[in-house]
């Protein structure tokens, strides 16, 4: 199957067009297994995102929220010792690696993450799991992705990556179809799919942590503002970036990346420092065109 799929080599990655999305070549076979064999549990929560749109933050927030009663003393929390990627298993790599037996051994409720678009999730997940999705302004995604990829490819020109993003041909792209897949699913099944934005999280993290907690079936009581604050504080960019565990070592299996590469600037609007106004307008127009009539506001 994999060999018959259209192929591109871009920004150092081998990509295959699978069911409308450009997947990293080494994920395709695992994705098919994920689609066919993943056995969800009723209390599973899956965190979904396009790469570089807030995955690490969402993992930390969801993990801290789910485990808050297990670690009432903030100084004991595992997020002080472990990178968020080591707390929430990454389904796409687990299946790519043939390691799905690991998932069986996880205690319930399981928290896992994926970069797959909603339309590529297993039917069993679509029917039976809660999925929280975070999206971000694609312009800031490109900037974040470029800095991330440059850790491996220092010579990668920004303009080249920008072209690939506009063509939709970067890992799990096109980004607009990825975002729309979750947007539509969240409209159809708001009890199953929570749609979050990185920029909203920055503006009022506590408000969206409450939404996330409620969605995951672990609501904070109205009087629990202190517990919400503790989660927000533990997962804040400054706190996470400053932890020793996030300054050294690497996260991920196939393409292990330095842990510090997941904490760069943590702001909205950094695209102004990297793109010409023409580039910004061009990407905005592509996205606006794709979002037209869907009810989803373009950035
Ligand atoms: P920047 O490169 O713009 O700084 P992902 O986790 O999906 O790979 O996304 C990485 C982006 O999220 C990076 O953006 C990173 O700095 C930012 N990020 C990571 N942890 C964060 C946190 N706790 N709060 C806010 N942003 C965070």
Automatic annotation (TrEMBL):
Sequence ranges assigned to domain Sulfotransferase in this UniProt record: 42-295
Keywords from the named record: Transferase
Flavoprotein found in the keyword field: no
Recorded GO MF terms: sulfotransferase activity
EC category: transferase
InterPro entries found in the cross-reference section: P-loop_NTPase (IPR027417), Sulfotransferase_dom (IPR000863)
Enzyme Commission code(s) on record: 2.8.2.-
Coiled coil: none
Matching Pfam families: Sulfotransfer_1
Domain of life: Eukaryota
Family: Belongs to the sulfotransferase 1 family.
Protein name: Sulfotransferase
Organism (species): Triticum urartu (Red wild einkorn)
Encoding gene, per UniProt annotation: LOC125536356
